[in-house]
Amino acid sequence: MPSGYGKSHASLKVWFWRALRFFHTRAREVLAIAKALLSTEHPFLVHIIPTRRCNLACTYCNEFDDFSNPVPLEEMKKRLDLLADMGTSIITISGGEPLLHPELDEIVRHIRRRGMIAGMITNGFLLTQKRIEELNRAGLEHLQISIDNTKPDEVSLKSLKTLDQKLELLANYAYFQVNINSVLGSGVKDPEDALRIAHRAVDLGLTSTVGIIHDHNGQLKPLGPREIEIFEEIMTLSKRSFSRFNDFQHNVARGKEHNWRCRSGSRYLYICEDGLVHWCSQQRGYPGIPLAQYTPEMRHREFYTEKFCARLCTVSCVQQVGMLDNWRAPQTLKPMPMTPPAAQTELMQIGPARSDS
Ligand code: SF4
Ligand code: SF4
Questions:
Q1: Is residue 72 within 8 Å of residue 60, measured between CB atoms?
Q2: How many other CB atoms sit within 10 Å of the CB of residue 221?
Q3: pTM for the full model?
Q4: Is the dihedral of CA 132, 61, 338, 39 positive or negative?
Q5: Helix 104-113 vs helix 129-138: angle between axes, to the nearest 10 degrees?
Q6: Ligand 1 geometric centre to CA of 65 (Å)
Q7: CA distances, 59 to each of 157, 204, 244, 349, 354 (Å)
Q8: Which residue's alpha carbon is nearest to atom 4 within ligand 1?
Q9: Which of 222, 109, 204, 104 is nearest to 163 (CA)?
């Protein structure tokens, strides 16, 4: 069911449009899953970056700068057209901070115009009632905010205290589905924070998920007994989310490696601000090929390529995409050595880290 009133003060009009958008999006998601089960020839989920710039500077983050210009709208549209022509089902706009892009609404409209499901990951700081209503009109379908703690600290300003007013605005005015992600694990000072954040989200009629962070060496480190209790409670709270079907996180919580087939580069693509295709936000630099030159054969090869980082992976959205194909097509190929294209100025291969995804 769509998010209801909870403790929010959504008007009947908002409730009506929210319900309508919820059922419309769910129906399209079911069709997208059916299409993905029938054919492996198209991407299911793509993260696209309209600007690398962010208005915050979380100390753990490797996905932002404070100077990049936004990607011009026409260029964004060209990239979205290429993705639509590949048969992509879902586009998630990420960053940096996507709300810093001056033509974000037009990007959302173009995703919808091309028949794809439109989502966004944001830190939420720039949301206002007016901005939420503009995103409603543009046709946004999903929005996710990650909240790191209950009070801002030297690591992250993304706290419940700072963002609570934004969550209320979303609960009162958003037609689109809103998910609040909290975190547990290495570097999180007070695990009870995750529970407080999740309960506040659910009280407001929003959905809630929890991410688990590895330690700085990228090693799987089991959560403590209380953290596991909190983790299981939040997973129960997030009963409306597809993530509950994903046993990957249950394994990570207990420090177990996960045996799965990462289909990044094929079913999942990460398109950076330079328009290059990467495996994911944490493996930027490979394959590093411009989207316009990324052929069906390359996607096909990546589908069968075993990813060396899979067992320690923290990227839950790619894990969920992997569930579509874990039951078929064992991965027998090794990554191809590639010559970086001229447009690429930097190769990055980054260990597990906390990210908004
Ligand atoms: S985690 Fe998100 S909000 Fe924080 S610096 Fe990175 S992109 Fe910005
Ligand atoms: S880090 Fe995870 S999502 Fe990224 S390429 Fe490796 S296994 Fe896939």
A1: no
A2: 15
A3: 0.90
A4: negative
A5: 30
A6: 9
A7: 10, 29, 29, 18, 10
A8: 58
A9: 204
With beta carbons less than 8 A apart as the criterion, state whether 302 and 321 touch. Answer: no
Q: Which of 78-82, 113-117, 320-324 has the lowest mean pLDDT?
A: 320-324
Cβ atoms 193, 182 nearer than 8 A: yes
- Counting atoms of ligand 1 from 1, which one is nearest the CA of 121? 2
Mapped onto helix, strand or coil, the DSSP state of residue 198 is helix
Mutating to test ligand 1, I would choose from 49, 51, 61 the residue with most ligand atoms within 8 A of its C-beta, which is 61
**Model confidence pLDDT, tens digit, residues 286-345:** 999 999 999 999 999 999 999 998 887 878 899 899 999 999 989 999 987 655 444 443
Q: Is 332 exposed, middle or buried (0-12, 13-18, 19+ CB in 10 A)?
A: exposed
Q: Which two tokens stand for residue 282?
A: 């944490």
**Residue pair 145/124 in contact by the 8 Å Cβ criterion:** yes
Q: Which-ligand-closest: CA of 55?
A: 1
Among 128, 97, 76, 101, smallest CA distance to 275 is for 76
